[in-house]
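Practice problem: predict the structure.
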Amino acid sequence: MPTAAQRLIDFLARQGIDRAFCVPGESYIALLDALHAHPAIDLVTCRSEGGAGFMAVADAKLTGRPGVVLVSRGPGACNASIAVHTAEQDATPLILLVGQVEKRDLRRNAFQEIDYARMFGGIAKWVGEATEASQVPELIARAYAMAMQGVPGPVVLSLPEDLLAEACDAPEVPATLVAPAIPAPAEVARLAELLRGAERPILLAGHAFDRPGARDALLAFAEAWTLPVAVSFRRQDLFPNRHALYAGDLGLRNPDAQRAAFAEADLVLALGTRLTDITSQGWSWPAAGQRLVHVCAEPRFLGWHFPAEMALAADAAALIAALADEAPAAPAAREGWNARLRAIHVADTGIRAAQHNDGVAFAEVARRIGEIAAPDAIVTLDAGTFGAPFYRKVSWTPPQRLVAPVSGAMGFGVPAGVAAALRYPGRQVIAAVGDGGALMTGGEFAVAVARGVPLKMILSDNGSYASIRIHQERAHPGRVSGTTLENPDFVAWCGCFGVPVTRIDSTADMPALAAALAAPGPAAIVVRTSLAAVLPATAMRAAE
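Answer:
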């Protein structure tokens, strides 16, 4: 008779899960045994639970299936919690399997025991814990469904160590996902009338389009109805950025001209987004008096902050499909509106060339990557100031992917790049990371090297937690505290992985960037990045 662990792994394989990430632990040794030589699931052994979790999140973003990560109890689960938070903020399906203390020790403060319902209750969509082997088929099916349906997100399943090794004869439980709600014909007709009458509409596209086929549907819909498209926070790869209808993103520090223009919209069609604080520009947009149609798969995100003329608990792609039977039309004034939004976005994409004594402006590096990246390149980003140019100074065109943490979690970039390179070894994969994030989870680069996938790691070295330093200089000019980094020799550090290392110290070295990215196999590029290029002008004048 199969064990509970074997039943769990077999269920995941039947759902198309073909990869899982882990840091091994004795508390789930039976799961490791069930994965041994499993014909369908590749187990990736990582160097930290945070790195393993980030890999699972990135893999989920690229496949549309839940990322799966296995960790041990206590410290392992704590280390992995950053990935749970990232998956929740990013609306990404994630299944965290935690080896728990033995059944007899539950809630007795045993060695490394944590009550995971209390620990993860605020950031996971669902937390379950098995107390009998017979519960495992039901619980893993529920976990999968909860992670996938509605607004996707993370789930946690606690599995006592001894229970996993027990025989399980409970019947198989199928994965039953609730079908997306389809808007009523009257609602579709009403929305079509709103779209036909709007002179200054904006289509705000969110997480619901980050799945296979949805990007093409979004593009076709926007073109049919001549709707300008703005994307939600850090989702630039949802819509071709060079398209005449692309109006930019809703992110950090949008230009004043763009914010002012968006505030003039007479209809905001928010599709597949939760309208969180950054996308809504600090809860200020859509503004009072603007007509809002808000479409989100889960009703709990509708109407709680922004009153909507229409609030539809529906799948955004299903709504687009339902509108296919309506005849598109637009007022003549919309052409000028679309052109105006496009011009504002294009004006924000320029980079002012300047020479800096302390290194290269990383915006120049980002722009160069955008120029030479393959048509199907995948770029993964860590959090940090170095990443900002990738959002507004680089133009992305599907099937290119920009995989970045909506949560703003440092340490994401390199593990995400490893996961992307494992998933698509034939595509160009570039992981960009700062000197802060590099020493958090950069060791996961060893996984890419061991697996022989051609991941290119670009490391920005400016000796500072620069994004915090910028805030510090604005709030407390000249009082630098806690933001300076004493870095190792990153060229030597990267070389320890046994890969070619390219060093860029000035703009004269930039031609080497293209050569390094084009070379076969894994490689590292270390950029001496200018801090002066990003600090407020007042701080630089004070330092002179």
